[in-house]
Design a protein that fits this description.
The chain has 3 helices and 16 strands. The relative contact order is 0.21. It is mostly beta strands.
C-alpha cells in the first residue's frame, strides 16, 4: 500500500486537500529569462537555453519532524517556450494542516537508476533524453547554454548524475518555526525558487567557476562535477 494512503488511514477523518508545488527560476537576484545574458562571478557573460531535471522523493514535514511522503517522479524541462515563473511542477492530495517544510530530491532513487532504460516507461527510458551512453544511470540535472569568448558564443553544459550526487533538499524549520505551510480544506501551495546561477558559485581549489577555462565548459564528470554538485546544494529555496 502506498505511503500516502497509509498516512490517510492513520489520520482517520483528516480531510484530503489539493497541494500544488510551483517553481520560479532566477539567475542571481533577478528572474531568469532564457536567452538573456547574465554575468557570473568570474566575469563570464552567459545565457541559459535549457534547464531539465528529475524531481522526486517529495515529502511534507510535519510539526513533530516526521514526514508525509508523496508519490511521484517528475521529469521537468524548461526552455524559452515554458517561461520561468510560477510554473506548476507537482500536485498531490494531502491531509489539511500546517506543515513545517518540504523535502525533495533532484534525481532518481537508486532502485530506479540502474534498471535497463530500454524497458522503462516515461519519465524514465531512453526517450527521456537523460540517459548517459557512457555511464549506467540517468542524468539527474541538466543545464545548457552559451557564453561569450573572444566575441563568439561557445556552448557550456553541466550534466549531473550518479547515485552519490543526487541532490537532496531539506527546506524545513522545526526549531525556529519560521516556515509555515498551511494547507486548508481548499488546498495549499508551496512556491520553490531555483537560482540557476548557483552552479557558478565556486570553482576548484578556491578559484572561480570560469567558463573561459575548458574544464568548466562541458562538465559530465571529474573534479568540476563535484564542485558543481556542492554549488547546487543551495540552489533551491522557498519563496
Amino acid at each position: 500500500m502506498k505511503p500516502f494512503f497509509v498516512t490517510l488511514m492513520l489520520l482517520g477523518a483528516a480531510q484530503a486537500a489539493p497541494l500544488s508545488i510551483n517553481l520560479s527560476m532566477n539567475a542571481g537576484q533577478e528572474p531568469l529569462e532564457f536567452g538573456k545574458t547574465y554575468t557570473n562571478g568570474a566575469g563570464n557573460t552567459y545565457q541559459v537555453d535549457l534547464v531539465k531535471f528529475y524531481f522526486s522523493e517529495v515529502a511534507l514535514v510535519k510539526a513533530d519532524g516526521t514526514e508525509l511522503p508523496l508519490d511521484g517522479l517528475k521529469l521537468l524541462e524548461f526552455n524559452k517556450a515554458t517561461g520561468t515563473q510560477k510554473l506548476p511542477i507537482f500536485t498531490a492530495d494531502v491531509p489539511a494542516g500546517t506543515y513545517k517544510g518540504v523535502r525533495f530530491s533532484i534525481g532518481i532513487p537508486r532502485a530506479l537508476n540502474h534498471l535497463d532504460p530500454t524497458a522503462q516507461k516515461p519519465p524514465l527510458g531512453v526517450d527521456s533524453g537523460m540517459v548517459w551512453a557512457w555511464n549506467p544511470g540517468y542524468v539527474f540535472y541538466k543545464i545548457e547554454g552559451k557564453f561569450l569568448k573572444d566575441q563568439a558564443q561557445q556552448p557550456f553544459s553541466l550534466h549531473l548524475g550518479l547515485d552519490s550526487y543526487k541532490l537532496q533538499y531539506n527546506l524545513a524549520d522545526l526549531q525556529m518555526q519560521k516556515i509555515q505551510i498551511p494547507v486548508t480544506a481548499q488546498g495549499g501551495t508551496i512556491n520553490l525558487k531555483l537560482d540557476v546561477a548557483q552552479m557558478f558559485k565556486a570553482g576548484l581549489a578556491g578559484e572561480k567557476y570560469d567558463l573561459s577555462q575548458s574544464k568548466y565548459q562541458q562538465v559530465h564528470s571529474g573534479p568540476v562535477f563535484g564542485a558543481a554538485y556542492l554549488n547546487l546544494l543551495s540552489a533551491f529555496t522557498l519563496e
